[in-house]
Amino acid sequence: MSAIDWPGLLRAGLHGLGLEPKVFWQLTPIELKIMLGVDAKAAPLTRARLSELSAAFPDIPKDIENGADRGLAGSGGRT
Q: What residues does each domain of the chain span?
């Protein structure tokens, strides 16, 4: 059984969400999680978004891809 972080939940509910104590204590755990956005899921990764990310963060750095660092590439780090 996991411990419940009551001080953290109270801070999130009373200060973060601006709930009154009576309202906070009437919430079910699921309702509180939804209000805090814990159950919010990220949008699925689409093919277009994957292409954008691949272009922005390529697996091979541009200087190695263009041959600027061929002295070290494939030599096991020896020069």
A: 6-36, 42-79
Rounded Cα–Cα distance for residues 21 and 15 (Å): 10
Q: Which residues contact 10 (CB under 8 A, 6 or more apart)?
A: 24
Distances (CA, A) of 31 to 3, 5, 10, 28, 76: 19, 16, 14, 5, 56
Tell me the per-residue pLDDT of 24-62, one tens digit each, with 9 for 90 and over.
999 988 888 889 887 667 778 899 989 998 998 888 766
pTM equals 0.46
Q: Left (φ > 0), alpha (ψ -120 to 50) or beta: where does 18 sit?
A: left
> DSSP states of 3-51 as a string?
PP-HHHHHIIIIIIS---HHHHHHS-HHHHHHHHTTTPPPPP--HHHHH
